[in-house]
Design brief:
This protein has 6 helices and 2 strands, in the order αββααααα. With about 220 residues, the protein is an all-alpha fold. The chain has a domain of about 140 residues. A hairpin with a 2-residue loop joins strand 1 and strand 2. The longest helix is centred in the middle third of the chain and has 26 residues. It starts with a helix and ends in a 78-residue tail after the last helix. The model has no long low-confidence stretch (mean pLDDT about 75). Keywords: Membrane, Transmembrane, Transmembrane helix. It comes from Streptomyces durocortorensis.
Length: about 220
């Protein structure tokens, strides 16, 4: 947006400079509006020209192109207007050089003067404005910006919330906030498993009445 505004202002300034240039002196004190458009193709003559058939005509056309390009935000149209101004100005310089034998720049009013500089500067500003403009956005970019980002949708009741790497049930499957109980609570190592007995048990004393060895009958009670 900022680039379009800045480029449009620069291009409009170039169009104003180009339109005002024919009303200033171009060569040896002669105004630019006194040169006919046909002289640019047939050769420079001393015949004076009307305003609407002078070199002002292509510059007005270029100014209209700039206005259309700014409204449509078209960089191509603005650049085309700059090329029109520069093309007619350079063509005039070629014809004027052929008529005068050479082109000179003099500070005493002889040679090229400020009107030519205004025309060249106006065309250059139009090209710069076209480069600064961003132009119109494509339909695809506009659709991408207008389309809202869909939030994450929770799974339906008949769907299982799984995580892709492991396919394990997620939090939505659990119906209770408390952890699920173990199916078979842990009761310690199996005493019958030889792998869980890391230390050998001491042999029981057969005379010990409290801890008799396995297979030893308990002592008989004393007779009265």
């Amino acid at each position: 947006m900022i680039r379009n505004i800045l480029g449009s202002l620069v291009a409009l300034a170039g169009a104003a400079s180009a339109v005002l240039s024919p009303f200033r002196e171009w060569y040896d004190g002669r105004l630019g509006r006194e040169y006919r458009v046909r002289d640019l193709f047939e050769g420079i003559t001393g015949t004076e020209s009307g305003v609407l058939v002078s070199i002002l005509l292509p510059f007005l056309f270029a100014a209209l192109l700039v206005l259309a390009g700014v409204v449509l935000r078209s960089r191509i149209v603005v650049a085309l207007a700059g090329l029109v101004v520069l093309g007619f100005t350079i063509l005039w310089m070629v014809r004027q050089g052929q008529a005068a034998g050479s082109l000179v720049v003099g500070g005493d009013g002889a040679g090229l003067q400020v009107g030519v500089a205004n025309a060249l500067a106006g065309g250059a500003l139009m090209l710069i404005g076209a480069l600064l403009m961003r132009g119109r956005r494509s339909r695809r970019e506009g659709r991408r910006e207008r389309e809202p980002v869909e939030p994450y949708a929770a799974p339906a009741a008949d769907q299982v919330d799984t995580w892709p790497p492991t396919q394990e049930p997620g939090m939505s499957v659990q119906t209770s906030p408390w952890p699920e109980p173990e199916v078979d609570p842990y009761t310690g190592p199996d005493p019958r498993d030889p792998r869980t007995r890391s230390y050998p048990q001491a042999e029981a004393d057969p005379r010990d009445p409290v801890h008799p060895p396995h297979g030893t009958p308990p002592p008989a009670p004393p007779r009265e």
